[in-house]
Amino acid sequence: MKKTFLVLIALALSFGLVWFGCDMEPSRVSGPDTETQQVGKIALPPVALERVMAIQNQHTPKLLEIPGVIGTATGLGPDDTPAILVLTKAPGVAGIPESIDGVPVVVQVTGEIIALAKPENPGKPPKETIDPTARFARPVPIGVSTGNEGECSAGTIGCRVTDGTAVYALSNNHVYALENRASIGSRILQPGLYDTGCRLDENNVIGALSGFEIIKFDGTPNTIDAAIALSSTGNLGKATPSNGYGTPKSTLVQASLGQNVQKYGRSSSLTKGTVTGIEATVRVTYSSGTALFSGQIIVEAAKPFIKAGDSGSLLVTDPSREPVGLLFAGNVNGKLAVANDINLVLARFGVSIDGE
Fold first, then answer.
1. What is the DSSP track for 305-329?
2. CA 90/CA 348 separation, integer angstroms
3. How far is it, in rounded angstroms, from Cα 278 to Cα 74?
4. Domain 35-110 belongs to what architecture?
5. Taking residues 134-140, what's their average pLDDT?
6. Which of 242, 260, 268, 288 has its CB 3.0 to 4.6 Å from that of 179, i.e. a possible disulfide?
């Protein structure tokens, strides 16, 4: 009787009560036909996403106290109604509620989420006519191997940005600033040292580290993992290699559920996915420790969307190429990726995308 009563209340509020257990089929309750609103590519019932995000954010601290929970986000349930996503490290996490304040909860097993700057295997990506790990003629394209002279690793040049006078290469803190350890003025390379057998070649320098947002590892929420390197139009171009999406637009768009997106990165070149979570709060594993991030974007794909070495890739809409986010982390199989809001990244450094 109690469950029936709850279902009736949920119907009256125009919510679908959804429980998506790890070993259970989701149950669905459909409300009456009502006018829908468009969010991304998905038509949603008139449930205020702002309310769902507010409830999610309010309860995230308690949810993160549950052993095995590594994050939350606002997303969609199996019936495409707004829901609170709870991300877990493994199946079978106990203590997660079926709903919170009338909003359904969807449990999603993601595994650990990791900052992806250190590739696992050197060499060319399979079946690629263009190798993003190679050294490119200057000016170098975006979306290819890069790194700081202080570490044998490699990430990705996200894009070229400008303050109206100078141009900079944009990537992650953990790619260019080495998780807060690099010095301002340290040299930035293309390709990164990982892709040159850890040998430094002066001819590979494309710029110098000029700014980064400090990553906090004390449990205080971060919003971006980002850094910029002062470069020049002679050293840095603004388009991907020819097998990529081309030049990003200068006009930004906000991430939305169901939005089709793409990226070009050092390890997996051009990949495409869908935004499945917004306003995400996630724990991300670094070599320096675990950092908490809030206000993030979740992207998923049927095939790996991101791999180690793709950190720093720019997330743009597909096919219109409007910047959405800056990718920095993903789960082990690469089918789930996490990106910073590009608006926050650019505002931090006082720059704009130098694109079309």
1. ---TT-TTPEEEETTT--EEEEEEE
2. 35
3. 5
4. 2-Layer Sandwich (3.30)
5. 98
6. 288
